[in-house]
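Thread: sanity check for a docking pose with fe (ii) ion

Original post by kr_44:
Hi all, I'm comparing my docking run against an independent structure prediction. Below are the sequence and the ligand SMILES. Could someone generate the full complex and paste the structure tokens? I mainly care about where the ligand ends up relative to the chain.
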Amino acid sequence: MKHSNSKRDVWIIDADTSHSGKVSKALQDLYNIDCFENTGRLFEEIKKGSPAAMLITGNTSPENCVDIIHKIREIDQKQEIVIIYIAGSEIDPKIEKSKQAGANATLSRPYSKQALLNTVSNSLNQAVERQWDALPETQKNALKQSSSIFSDISNVISSGQPVEFNSVKDNCQPLVDAIETGDFLSILDGVKNHDDYTYAHSMRVATLLTLLGHEAGFNNDEQLLLSSGGLVHDVGKMMIPHEILNKPGRLTDEEFEIMKSHVAETMTYLDTCDDIPKGVRIIAEQHHEKIDGTGYPHNLQGKDLNELARMAAVVDVFSALTDRRVYKEPMPTEKAIKIMTEEMTSHLDQHFVKMFEKIAYDAKVIQSAKT
Ligand SMILES: [Fe+2]
Ligand SMILES: [Fe+2]
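Reply from moderator J.T.:
Ran it for you. Here is the predicted complex with fe (ii) ion included:
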């Protein structure tokens, strides 16, 4: 089945339609769900294309769930499909057998909706991150180190524990190195299917902002500032409710106010880290300001807008338009640039839009936004 959105396919294999119905309802906002009551149709469908993940319960027919997992792994030699076994209880003997057969994760009943969402999302991310191992050292490190520092921040942000800026900066050095050699396509590709939207967006902003700095003649330290700023510019989004963050279509006025608060949340967090450079703070605080003063949170205008913020605004808008979201396909690069040059002349600094346009028309960026 072809869907007109960017959601990834998740299949549920379960003869108990009441349980599969509940699982489906919990996951359908984030993934395209298909339920299989018997394995006949499952093995027909898998010939046409495989899903990102399969959830298999002990309730399968006519075959045993462990045999099904074995059969799937025979078809899926590269182990690309994430298989999650949902056990009847914590002492289900099939937990061990399903792992031996090739299940990536297990979940035992009873479980909460959040536990289900976390298990699916973490397993999909682990699969995406495993593919990074095949990349050259610099690109692999750029992805692995940024992802690790980002999850460190996400683990401590709600408790307000600071991270050391030096560790953010050190972890961004491989990204700056990759930009220097011109091989950043695999980095943009590497985050494309990541299930953590805020991380994927932040990493795209960090990469493209560093690239813009490189084009503008910034030195290594300045580029490190841009990549670090890009990586942390939206960390406050981790405090925004999921339904608002992933809402398709227009936000209500009230929801938009909550969304806008991500800037203040980011600043509150960065204030706890006492060694954050001014440039990184400016990128985080001013990336939603607009030249004509209609942006937020401070309605800064014209010359009050720092150069770093002008650059960050251009890259942030481009990324938001071309990002893959659960409710939309990524916008093609050409269309995003057209909007930025024709409809956003009073919002974005056109000097940096022109400079960014040159980079974006580099075949590499176009290709990565299209696929
Ligand atoms: Fe933002
Ligand atoms: Fe952003």
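Residues 135-370 form a domain with the Hypothetical protein af1432 fold (CATH 1.10.3210.10). Hope that helps with the comparison, let us know if your pose agrees.
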